[in-house]
């Protein structure tokens, strides 16, 4: 019975610490891959066992009580030590095994990672992947993410980073649209065309289209008749002769390969930033992380296949 109570308390501490760090049962549940009700019940059992109220609850938020703040600090230290023990044990193992939690933007996950994951399974049959896709920036430490793929170089002393590939943006349109309306020769010509723009899910802001003009990057936001918050949706609008839009090359490449889209203003295209892999310092020696980073080296070769498709289509 004592061991059972100890296990329940440990489960409650994990649920409590994650809810306190992320600010809600829903976020904690998503991070732990369980239901919000399971998180709530674990925290309630912990409160009953300790005889303390850990949260002040409202319909919209959780606020730590004074006792909750003290326990949260202690719980984080305890769980950090437990994680270090786990990582030390995992590092001693020769073969990757267990679950690896990976976070990535939706288009990178669907267009680049997902089609290749079966290769990882074939090489490491005991390794399973929990792939979490979305445009929001998750806190790897708080949410227990092992490896994240992000666009851009992000400074965080708790994380290790590796550049994977350039994040190249280019404008595209369907051959039929260009045959009817003509192709713009300069970014300034976009004001005379039907344009489709991208809206960031995280901020709600419209994408500023970057072009290299006279040796410097110029950003424009052309008037747009349609806006979407998913790159694939924009590509489909363009395929349907909806006008000109800007897209990461790894999203547009398959449409270009099928002849449904062609690059526009390719001479002005720029490498907007980089695609980067990030992982916590505590995962440095983790064999699962090492295996996935090796997999990323094959998925993101020095000459990326999607940029090769775009470059070939842009040649006169």
Give keywords:
316 residues, alpha/beta, Arc Repressor Mutant, subunit A, D-Maltodextrin-Binding Protein, domain 2, 3 domains, nine-stranded mixed sheet, two-stranded antiparallel sheet, 12 helices, 24% strand
Brief description of this entry?
This protein is about 45% helix and about 25% strand.
What is the fold's blueprint, element by element?
Elements lengths: L1 H21 L2 H8 L3 H15 L4 E3 L4 E3 L1 H27 L5 E7 L1 H8 L3 H7 L3 E7 L6 H4 L3 E5 L7 E15 L1 H7 L13 E4 L10 E5 L2 E5 L5 E3 L2 H9 L4 E5 H9 L4 E3 L5 E11 L6 H13 L5 H10 L2
Parallel strand pairs: 3-4, 3-5, 7-10, 7-11
Antiparallel strand pairs: 1-2, 5-13, 6-11, 6-12, 6-13, 8-9
Helix pairs in contact: 1-2, 1-3, 1-4, 2-3, 10-12
CATH architecture of the largest domain: 3-Layer(aba) Sandwich
Proportion of residues in β-strands: 15-25%
Total number of domains: 3
Number of strands: 13
* Mean pLDDT, all residues: 88
Number of helices: 12
Topology pattern, helix = H, strand = E: HHHEEHEHHEHEEHEEEEHEHEEHH
- Shape estimate: elongated
Structural class by helix and strand composition: alpha/beta
